[in-house]
Amino acid sequence: MAFFEKLGKKIGDAAEAAGDKAKDFAEITKLNNSISAEKKEIDRLIVELGKWAFEAEKSNPESPVAIQCSKILESKKNIESFQEKIEEIKSGPDLEAPVPEVENLEIVTCKNCGAIVPEGSKFCPECGTPVDL
């Protein structure tokens, strides 16, 4: 019986130690989540501070952040230019613009299948029939 008592005590001790480790792990996980949340808040506040500093200093050439402000302003100008180009593309071609004329355009078609044959081809790309030049 002493054997079973010792075995039971060892199992109990091991279960208690495992329970303590599980509690420690849960507490560490909770603390790591809290650290992560605080880091996210710091990042948010830094972005907010940066926006405030930019707005306050963007017109001050003597500012210690003047170089960064000028780079931001240049990037904003680039964005506006890109957006204008997008609008030009979306609005499509000018329907009033004259269509350029093509001189001496000769279209060769295959006498067998009627497919258009590219200039300089000796055979039809569709059916392989030799092209008469």
**Major pleated sheet:** 2 strands, antiparallel
Q: What is the strand tally? A: 2
- What is the terminal-to-terminal distance? 110 Å
Order of helices and strands: HHEE
Mean pLDDT: 87
The radius of gyration computed from the alpha-carbon positions, rounded to a whole number of angstroms, is 38 Å
> Beta-strand percentage?
under 5%
Task: State the strand order across the main sheet.
Answer: 1-2
Q: What's the overall geometry?
A: flat
Structural class: mainly alpha
What percent of the residues sit in helical stretches (DSSP H or I)?
55-70%
Protein name: Rubrerythrin
InterPro entries: Zinc_ribbon_dom
Pfam families: Zn_Ribbon_1
Domain Zinc-ribbon: 110-131
What does this protein look like?
InterPro entries: Zinc_ribbon_dom (IPR026870). With 133 residues, this protein is mainly alpha-helical. The protein has a domain at 10-56. It has two helices and two strands. Strands 1-2 form a two-stranded antiparallel sheet. Strand 1 and strand 2 form a beta hairpin. The termini are far apart. The model has no long low-confidence stretch (mean pLDDT 87).
